[in-house]
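Dock KE4; give full complex structure.
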Amino acid sequence: MPGGVNSPVRAFKSVGGQPIVFDHVKGAYIWDVDNNQYIDYVGTWGPAICGHAHPEVLQALSAALEKGTSFGAPCYLENVLAEMVIDAVPSIEMVRFVNSGTEACMAVLRLMRAFTGRDKIIKFEGNYHGHADMFLVKAGSGVATLGLPDSPGVPKAATQSTLTAPYNDLAAVKKLLEENPGEISGVILEPVVGNSGFVTPDAGFLQGLRDLTREHDTLLVFDEVMTGFRIAYGGAQEKFGVTPDLTTLGKIIGGGLPVGAYGGRRDIMEMIAPAGPVYQAGTLSGNPLAMTAGIKTLEILQRPGAYEQLETMTQKLITGLLAAAHDTGHAATGGNISAMFGMFFTDKEVHSYDDAKEADTEKFGCFHRGMLEAGIYLAPSQYEAGFMSLAHTDADIEKTIAAARQVLSEL
Ligand code: KE4
């Protein structure tokens, strides 16, 4: 397999060393094939928010298995998860399930263009919307991690309609909209960025985008593949009170199995085949196993106190990590919003991808390796975020902070 992995960011390229091969996960922990245990803050990049291999999810899956794994035809369960998503996410009146966040973003782009009759889109530098051609322009996540200029194999025709602006720069968006009157179908963004490292929207940024897109009759799309059901049960759009026209989801709604989704205003979603002319399809979309894992995960997240616990634990962690850095003489900034967090080795607040690129990625690599040796598994890239689960304990947090203090004191 190229690089020994099936997804580039797992290859540890930017933090040195070889990719670790894992054997099993449970709760807040992950074990490699040599039975070394780590406290896991990657959580399979978000889905494991209730803890890995949650007993109730496994139990629901084993019951579902008895009834088969895929029908290739409508099943009751996809209607159940659809209603849960519609009830939870303010912008979603109708939803379509697919098999990954990339697929969700590809489909939502086609839909934006079909609904508006316009080809151009605006995305933000350092934001990542999956690996489809038209999004591989100044993308985040693994593209940023590997410092790829943009991927070869992507024809100019695929990206010439993709305009970019710095994150948190409303003026740049306004300028693009004014320079391309009537040509921009929509603005798509991570409402809280997890793919340039952890970068939060400045006050007024999201509402500013909502106002600008309305003014220019342009759609606003929140890519909540990472933030959906993590920042709040209703996602960043609930947390910040800004409602986009369309939303993409993934990760958590699959509870660890492959699921993506896109949804939004009924008048837009009704353009999707077979209701309308915009084609999008998938053999395994809405399969009963993936629906089961998603339904049970969302049921667990609905329980009282879940998000308060996630906020408290994540705040305790990031506060401790930043203190460990400052007490050992390292410049570091960062923070959390609910169960998503991040830290940069820099003395400036990070508001954009350019800011993030000024962080000391070499120091991050040394820190990552030291933490790995101490039994703590952080995302293997400065341009990723951290993920807390309901399974992490105070003892896990304290061990993590103590390890960070030790590692940083030796750096
Ligand atoms: P997937 O195709 O990987 O399911 O989703 C793509 C995607 C879309 N939008 C956002 C905001 C995302 O964060 C992602 C995927 N996130 C990365 C982690 N940064 C997935 C990990 C990986 O690529 O291995």
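Observed: Residues 306-327 form the longest helix (22 residues).
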